[in-house]
Amino acid sequence: MGQLHICIGFAEALPAPEVVFDLRNAGYRVSAFARTARPTLIHLGVSITQIPAPETDVQAATAAIQTLMQGHDAPDYILPLDDTGLWLVDRAIGDDPRNAGASGAQATAALDKAQQTRAAQVAGLDVPPTQITGEPDDTQVPYPAIARPALAVRVTDNHLGKDDPVYLVSDTDAGQLDPSNGPYLIQPLITGTGEGVFGIMTDQGVAAWSGHRRLRMMNPHGSGASACQSITPDPALCAKIETFLDDIGWRGPFMIELLRDADGTCWFMELNGRQWGSLALARRQGFAYPAWAIAQKTNADFTPPAITGAPRIQRHLGRELLHLLFVLRGPKSNFHKASWPSFWASLRGVFTPAPLSSFYNYDPKHRGYLIRDTLATLKKVLR
Q: pTM, whole model, 2 decimals?
C-alpha cells in the first residue's frame, strides 16, 4: 500500500500547522482545502485546494468538497480541523469511510452546545446554571451572565455563520437577544482559569489522557490561550468525562473545555469535537492525536501507545504579543476589572526566554515558519 494522502481543512484553522507536522511525522502525505489560494500553510509545502467560502455560499462550498473527494488525486481521508470544516465535511460526504472527522449524530453533538450541556449534566459533570432560550425552564441565572449561541455554526440563506456571545447584566438585556439567531445558553459569568482535558475515545474507552491549564489568554476578556502548561487530569473528572462521551456515542479525539473557579470547582464549558488550538502542547509531550485519528480509521482495533508526557509550557508567539496589547487596552467591564492581569506580570511572562520548541507551530524542518505564522497572526487580528 502506498503513502496515504490526508486532506485537512480549513487551512486557516489555528491547529493546522501542528496537524501538518504530526501527520507528516507519521508518514502521511498532506494537502489542505482553504478559502484562499495562498494561506500561510502553503509555506510548509502543503498542496492547497481553494474552495468557495461557506460563509458566502454553502452550496458551492459543499459541491467543492464533493468534487475534491472524487478527483484524480482524491485523498484517502479528509480531516476537518475546526467547527466550520467539521460541519462542511459532514454535509458534503456524511458517513463516507474517508471522513476522519465526526459525522451524523456525532457531528451534531460536536456542534450543538445545548445537547452537550444536557448530556454533561446527566454524566455528573459540574455544569453552571443554564437557561436555554426557547425551552420551558425554571432555572434562574444570576447576573452578570453570558449568552452563548447553542449552535457552533448555523446556515442562514445559504450562508454559514457564527454568532457572537452576548454579555448580560439584567433581564432587559436578555430580552434583547435575537431569536432568529437560534437558541442561546445563558449562564452566569464565572471567574476562573481555563483548563482542557484531551484524549481519544475508543470502543474500549478513553485512551491517552492529557490536559492543560491556561497561563494567559490572548484576550483576557475570553479567548483561546496564548500560553498554557500541561497538567494531569483528575481521575474522578476523567471518569465523568468518559461517561459523557459514551452517552453521546463519541469516537475519536476530543477536547473538553473547563473553567476552574476559586473554590476549585471545574465547570464544564463545552466539547470540541475536532482538533484544537493548543495541540502543540500535547504533541510536544508525545500525544499524536491527529495521526491517531487516522490510525483509528485505518484500524478499528487501534489503541494509542501509553504515553507519560513530561511537564512543559507551550506558547503561541503571535498571540503572546497580542495579549500584551489587549492588557494595555484594559477591561471593558467592571466584571473583568477585578481579574484583569497585571501588565508587568504579563510582560515578564511573555518575554521570558524559551527554546524554539516551546512555541506553537515550530518545526525544525521549517525554522522560518514560526516567524511567518507570527506575522500572519498579528496582521489578522490587528486588521
A: 0.95
